[in-house]
């Protein structure tokens, strides 16, 4: 067994954020959660996707000024600076999801901020779900494709003094490619924020499967890439729309080590032993020894499924 490498991670689940809630009110909640995470000894805390506002892609908004009101043009800005100051004062790093306006382009973005309060890295959501325009007659809408361009920064991993840390956002967690690209960079910890509605416009799946698929995706990704995953929900009933909770920290064995109880503001934490990844990487998931990329070409050459590649055996 290699020596333990302990790192306490926290996840700060947010309860609902209503449309009328100001940035200042939300940031105050985030600062309180960050303080609680620090009080429990955490070195890093993960906040949700689009944490600063209500999940506005549930609406088809046409007024450009109203749409812009959900986006940040600078980070930190005047409203978010208190969170960066709190991080620096306590020496705790964080992941934060927010809507980013870069010139004329809108992204669904997360940043990784170090325990010194400086931005280490930025990720822009790549697997954008939902529709680009409203579905006629649908009771629910999910319009992320209307509001967000596809991210252009890939899936980088940042080598921090504590751990190699990567990020993804919500729907990205359902795609194995997301985690494998980070696994191939030796990621120790992936942080992910999400807003997962309990009802969904695109299919009539039984509601209990929302939580099942959320956990299934995280547990398989952690195991297959020998990494820790810290996942933070924005949960509860937001503007009449229920969203799942289920914030959790998953170990490289694929086991959930701690999980949120509520659908409200709640901190969970776990002392992670990063050395556990090494056991998987030296054995069952020794990528260098066992991967066969020469047989994986359809993964990068095809987007949708194409013709079967089966042929008569030689
Ligand atoms: N915000 C999201 O990306 N939500 C998706 C829903 C639409 C399926 C998710 O993967 O949870």
TrEMBL record:
Protein keywords: Hydrolase
CDD domains: DCase
Stretches assigned to the CN hydrolase domain: 7-276
Domain of life of the source: Bacteria
Gene Ontology molecular function terms on file: hydrolase activity, acting on carbon-nitrogen (but not peptide) bonds, in linear amides
PANTHER family, A to Z: NITRILASE C965.09-RELATED
The protein's name in its UniProt record: N-carbamoyl-D-amino-acid hydrolase
Record-linked InterPro entries: Aliph_Amidase/BUP, C-N_Hydrolase, C-N_Hydrolase_sf
Matching Pfam families: CN_hydrolase
Organism: Bordetella genomosp. 2
């Amino acid at each position: 067994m290699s020596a333990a490498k302990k790192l306490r991670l926290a996840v700060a689940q947010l309860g609902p954020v209503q449309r009328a809630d100001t940035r200042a009110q939300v940031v105050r909640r985030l600062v309180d959660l960050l303080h609680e995470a620090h009080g429990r000894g955490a070195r890093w805390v993960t906040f949700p996707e689009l944490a600063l506002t209500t999940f506005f892609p549930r609406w088809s908004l046409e007024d450009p000024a109203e749409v812009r009101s959900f986006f940040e043009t600078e980070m930190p800005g005047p409203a978010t600076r208190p969170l960066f100051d709190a991080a620096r004062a306590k020496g705790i790093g964080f992941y934060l999801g927010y809507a980013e306006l870069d010139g004329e382009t809108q992204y669904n973005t997360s940043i990784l901020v170090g325990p010194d309060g400086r931005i280490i890295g930025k990720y822009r959501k790549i697997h954008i779900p939902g529709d680009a325009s409203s579905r006629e007659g649908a009771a629910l809408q999910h319009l992320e494709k209307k509001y967000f361009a596809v991210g252009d920064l890939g899936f980088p991993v940042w080598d921090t003094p504590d751990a190699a840390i990567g990020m993804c956002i919500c729907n990205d967690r359902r795609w194995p490619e997301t985690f494998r690209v980070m696994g191939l960079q030796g990621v120790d910890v992936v942080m992910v924020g999400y807003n997962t509605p309990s009802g969904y416009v695109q299919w009539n799946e039984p509601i209990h499967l929302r939580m099942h698929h959320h956990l299934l995706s995280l547990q398989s990704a952690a195991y297959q890439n020998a990494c820790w995953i810290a996942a933070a929900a924005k949960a509860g009933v937001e503007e009449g729309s229920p969203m799942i909770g289920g914030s959790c920290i998953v170990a490289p064995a694929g086991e959930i080590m701690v999980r949120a109880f509520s659908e409200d503001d709640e901190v969970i934490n776990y002392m992670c032993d990063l050395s556990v990844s090494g056991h998987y990487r030296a054995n069952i998931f020794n990528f260098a020894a066992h991967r066969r990329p020469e047989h994986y070409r359809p993964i990068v050459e095809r987007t949708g499924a194409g013709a079967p590649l089966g042929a008569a055996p030689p």
